[in-house]
Write the structure tokens for this entry.
Amino acid sequence: MQRDKQASLKGIFNITVTPFAADGAIDYPALASSIERVVGLDYDGLLIGGTYGEFPTMSPQERAELFRRSIEYAAGKVPVMLCTAASEPRITLELTQLASALGAYAMVTAPYVSEVQEQHILEYFRWIAPVARSGLIVYNAPGIGITLSASLIEHLSTIDNVVGLKQGDLDPTAIDQIANRLSGKLKLFCASDLAFLGPIMAGFDGLSSTNSCAFPELILATYRAVRSGDTRSATDLHRSWYAFRELARRYGQPQTVKAAMAHRGWGNGRVRSPLLPLTPAQLNEVAEATDVILASGRASLSRAV
């Protein structure tokens, strides 16, 4: 049964940023367009309402509606991960139940409370997992202040319904341990497209990518090249958007991604408080980098072909 749930967990999943209208509401027509764009390019799946989907700024009701609409727009064409993490465990449980009812994978972080211990985390996932009938993905997200050890992840892999890991700790030792100790037990996803060549070459099953909202063709081609063993093309393609990665690290995601999308005519770049929009000078930097990257990326794509 576990293997049946894992079957579609592979490849490159687009971490879909959440578009917002001028009044702050979720812009569902823009969301539908975003999903249609990446599905049309043959992405392997979607991740909705994640960290860079700005889920902490949304009410549980908004998140539930976001889940329902996203599943509707995906129309069964690709598997969908729904981030059901929350600081309130009961909200996580309710959203995980909804994700399962919608036929999606639920993705959950460790409970982000002070002084949490490994035994607490283990029991937390044991409590959540039974309602995740479609499959539960553990999100190892150092950004919440908790990094799961390889040994703890190995314990989590024995829980019924736990089928995958989204690994945000890209320390080479951690990647080596996880790739070799957990391959075949969990489907392994690299959580960051800023530095994904190593984990994929180490044996990870897939990648979740936020920047593919801004550069869907380029990042898809990079992923396909490294997966096929064409490391030279993969390296050239990955290098071609380094300038943007530097801006994303400096100014933050999803602000930089949304700014690049807006420059390409895809949305308006709005984020929700406490995030702030980029300044005019920063927007100019992103626009200039985007134009250069698209030109160099097309050149690299033609050489790869």
